[in-house]
Each structure stands twice: as C-alpha cells, then as structure tokens.
Amino acid sequence: MTVIQRFLSFRAICHALLFWSAAALLAEDPATGVIVPAPELPASLPWDLAALSQPPAFEWLDETSPVRSLLYAGEPFEGHATRVFAYYATPASIGGGDAGQASATATKGPWPGVVLVHGGGGTAFAEWVTLWAKRGYAAIAMDLAGSRPDPAGTKKNAVVRMPDGGPGQEHKDKFDTIATPETSDDWPYHAVANVIRAHSLLRSFPDVDPSRTAITGISWGGYTTCLVASLDNRFRAAVPVYGCGHLRDNSCWLGDFERIGSEQAARWTERYDPGAYLSACRVPIFFVNGTNDFAYPLDSHMKSHADVQHAPKNSRPKGDAASSVRHEICARETSESGKDRRSCALSSKLP
C-alpha cells in the first residue's frame, strides 16, 4: 500500500469528524462569529482572540486561475506591518481557468472549508489546496515564514522573502527569541495568529459555509494545528499529522531546549507548547502519527491525546518501519528550495 493510500484510508473517519455534533463544542458567539475562550485557557494569552476572530484585510494577487493567490494582513513584526501569502481554491475554481467558468459538474457552494498548515521548511502549496478542492472543500494554505512562491518561477516551489513578511522558520526564530520580553518576534506567536487569521478570512468568503470548517497540518503544521484547535473553537474538526505537544519531555528538539537554558525552556513550554493548551480544546480532534516518528515520539503524542478532555478525540499511530522515514522525507524536501515537494503535500492531505 502506498503512502497516499494509507492516508486516504482515514477519509471516512475525517469526514465523520467534520460532521460531529456541534453540541460537543463551545461555539463562537453566533451573532458575531467571535471566538469564545475556553475556561481552561491561561488567564493571560499572547494572542488577542477577539481581534483574530475578525477577517483580516486582504488583496487578491490572482482571482481568476484555478488556484487563486492572495495576501492578507498579519501581525506586526520588528516594528512594521506584515502580510501573509496564501493559495485558495474551491470546487468551482478548479473546474475552469476563469472565474465563473466552472465545469457543470462542480458542486455548488457554499462549501465546507479547510485550513492547511505546512510543516518545517515548507510554504503554501498549490497542489495541496487543489487536492482538497477536488474533494469538495474550499481550501486555504498559507506561508508561515514571511515568504511567497518565487514569481519568476525559476525553480519548482522556490520561495522568495517578502519585504513585509513576518519571521522566518529557523530554529532561532522558533526557540531563541523567547529570551526577549516581547512576543512579536516569536515564530510560534505569528504562526498561530496567522493561521487563525486565515480561518477568519476563509469563513468570511461567501462561497464558504462558516459552520463547517476544519484544520489539518503536518509536522510543525501539526504542532500549530494543536495550538489553534485549542484556541479557536469555531472549527468543527482538527487533524494534526505528526505534530503534538510535550516537546520538552521528548522530541527531536531537546538540544534546542538545552541550548536556550532551563529558564527560557520553561518559559517557551508555558507559552507555546500545545500541552499547555490542549485541555481547553473543544474541537473534535484526530491525532495521526507513526509509532517511531523521529520528531514527535509516541510518548509525547499520547500525552497530548490525553490532554484533550472536553472534545471527541481519536488517535491513529501507524506502526511500521517506514513511518519515521516518511516524515523525514517530507521535512527534507520542504527545506530544500527547488526540490519537488509534492510528496509532502500529498502525505499531508486528508479528505
């Protein structure tokens, strides 16, 4: 069985997640669509959830191709406003090359929506939103490293740094900046905020059903999915692939925690580890991992699963020798500019 077939086998379960009863959730304010913070969340959060509930300002870069592209407002970084690049596709848009030229067989909206979160070294993937659009979803995938695909297109999936982009995604951006007093230079802060902003934008589109949205991400995207699902209760399903919490207990980043020192490691864990937030999760969540994953080991994975106490949950650790290799291939291919990243995008896809 291929990697793709293995992930496709989860399709029925993930569809069930999406349509689980909304009664299990702490719903948003129905009048405003504003996130209602769960009582288990820390009293002080780095993020302004009420502000992030509002659709950000955005502009279309391409509003006519099968896969659209846009820029939306992000969080301030180093004293300047930022914008985030994203791809967007719907069943109608991929049915034809021009707006309004969808194929006659395309399902009419409004469609359920899905937010797609890339892993370490990754970017927004046009292939990824296309795959979900083919399944009947309106899909958005953003870049979380202050970059965008190279407009010159000299190399496949090459990216260029945006002058108004947020922080990069190196280890120093993810861990070392915790030593500064502000949060605005921390990659996890921006990643979470920009994913929630993407969700708010997606919900605002007239061709999207805001009552049926889901989120999935791979690796660092799975980590971010855990955080976002714990904060943004407007989702109806969350599927973190590989990513989880309790990274200081066991993960491939133990050396980073040792390097920044115990005081800063404790601060990072309190502020940005999903284990500090998953008890607040009200979104039905399905954890997918390998039993021998090199980055997010099974003990940390199962601790994260156990943290969820107020939402339907499931876990699918896949026990075979190739599971860690698949993750490593994805991580390597998304970190090398010009490499074909299709395998990572495909292995990230769930229905």
Q: Order the strands across the largest sheet as they lie in space.
A: 1-2-3-5-4-8-9-10-11
Percent of residues in helices: 25-40%
The low-confidence parts are 1-10, 19-25, 96-105, 331-351
Q: How many distinct beta strands? A: 11
Description:
With 351 residues, this protein is an alpha/beta fold. It has one domain (3-348): Alpha/Beta hydrolase fold, catalytic domain (Rossmann fold), CATH 3.40.50.1820. The protein is built from twelve helices and eleven strands. It has helices at 3-8, 11-18, 49-52, 126-134, 171-174, 187-204, 220-231, 254-260, 262-272, 298-307, 323-335, 342-348; strands at 58-62, 68-73, 83-89, 111-117, 138-142, 147-149, 159-161, 208-218, 237-241, 285-290, 313-318. Strands 1-2-3-5-4-8-9-10-11 form a nine-stranded mixed beta sheet, with helices on both faces. Helix 6 (187-204) crosses helix 7 (220-231) and helix 11 packs across helix 12. Residues 1-10, 19-25, 96-105 and 331-351 have low confidence and may be disordered.
Question: Quick summary of this structure?
Answer:
With 351 residues, the chain is of the alpha/beta class. Helix content is 31%, strand content 18%.
What structural keywords apply?
351 residues, alpha/beta, 9-stranded mixed β-sheet, two-stranded antiparallel sheet
Secondary structure elements and pairings:
Layout: H1 3-8, H2 11-18, H3 49-52, E1 58-62, E2 68-73, E3 83-89, E4 111-117, H4 126-134, E5 138-142, E6 147-149, E7 159-161, H5 171-174, H6 187-204, E8 208-218, H7 220-231, E9 237-241, H8 254-260, H9 262-272, E10 285-290, H10 298-307, E11 313-318, H11 323-335, H12 342-348
Parallel strand pairs: 4-5, 4-8, 8-9, 9-10, 10-11
Antiparallel strand pairs: 1-2, 2-3, 3-5, 6-7
